[in-house]
Write a structure and sequence with these properties.
2 copies of one chain form a homodimer.
Chain A (H helix, E strand, L loop, with lengths): L1 H17 L4 E5 L2 E12 L4 H9 L3 H9 L2 E9 L2 E8 L4 H10 L1 H10 L3 E2 L11 E2 L1 E6 L1
Antiparallel strand pairs in A: 1-2, 2-4, 2-5, 2-6, 3-4
Helix pairs in contact in A: 1-4
Chain lengths: ~140, ~140
């Protein structure tokens, strides 16, 4: 049961990581919240992580869309993963909680979390660490 | 004249950095090329870089749009800058050359380039280093 507990800690840690700094702006009448995060890939886990993401379960993509995530990209370089996404809903934290409560998402994170570890500068309990937006042009 | 030469090396280095790995996909009939790059901020230069980017010259934004760049965001964390942009034109390299040939852009880069240095893993002559796209969802 210890592993289950660890997985749930991961879920909440992901939520915490998701709930910080954000930039909201209007685009053609639409509200968009852009998010950028960074996390480390564990030594030797890059290929597994890439393979998983070449075949993301359709249910995960469906869930992401349900919680108003779009234009979601993950990049890799030098042991780091950078994610960029756009959120179009009205309550980011509530939607992320909905995602974390989804059983399929929990199964997915059981596979992806062991490939990752927070960057050294991440605060206690933060999984993906927020990046600060310093420039944006629509 | 040495400084002018260095600036021109920077321009071409930026172009080289821009011309590598890319992912093209169709979105509602539109062709989009997503680009993700990383570069270091020089020690003590973050505030200057941020200040510059809070007041980007309108002519620079105009030029970026002219060369079919949109949805361009730069994030910062842990001494690194991460840029994400979308290109909607038909010839990315030609458009980046057009940008680099623009005199206002050259003036702008004279201010921003001294704030940056390539990541250690960047190849010879590469300024912004390409990230590899490992996941995307529209």
């Amino acid at each position: 049961m210890r592993i289950t507990k660890i997985v749930f800690v991961f879920l909440f840690v992901q939520l915490l990581g998701c709930s910080q700094s954000a930039d909201v702006h209007k685009e053609a009448g639409e509200k968009i919240l852009r998010k950028g995060w960074v996390i480390r890939v564990k030594q030797g886990k890059l290929e597994e992580y890439k393979k998983l993401h070449k075949n993301v379960w359709p249910g995960i993509l469906k869930k992401l869309r349900e919680v108003h995530v779009r234009n979601y990209t993950i990049f890799y370089r030098d042991g780091l993963l950078f994610s960029y996404l756009e959120y179009t809903g009205d309550d980011f934290n509530a939607d992320m909680k909905k995602m974390a409560a989804d059983s399929l998402t929990q199964e997915w994170w059981k596979l992806t979390n062991p490939c990752q570890e927070p960057v050294r500068s991440a605060g206690d309990g933060v999984w993906w660490a927020d990046m600060e937006e310093v420039f944006h042009m629509d």
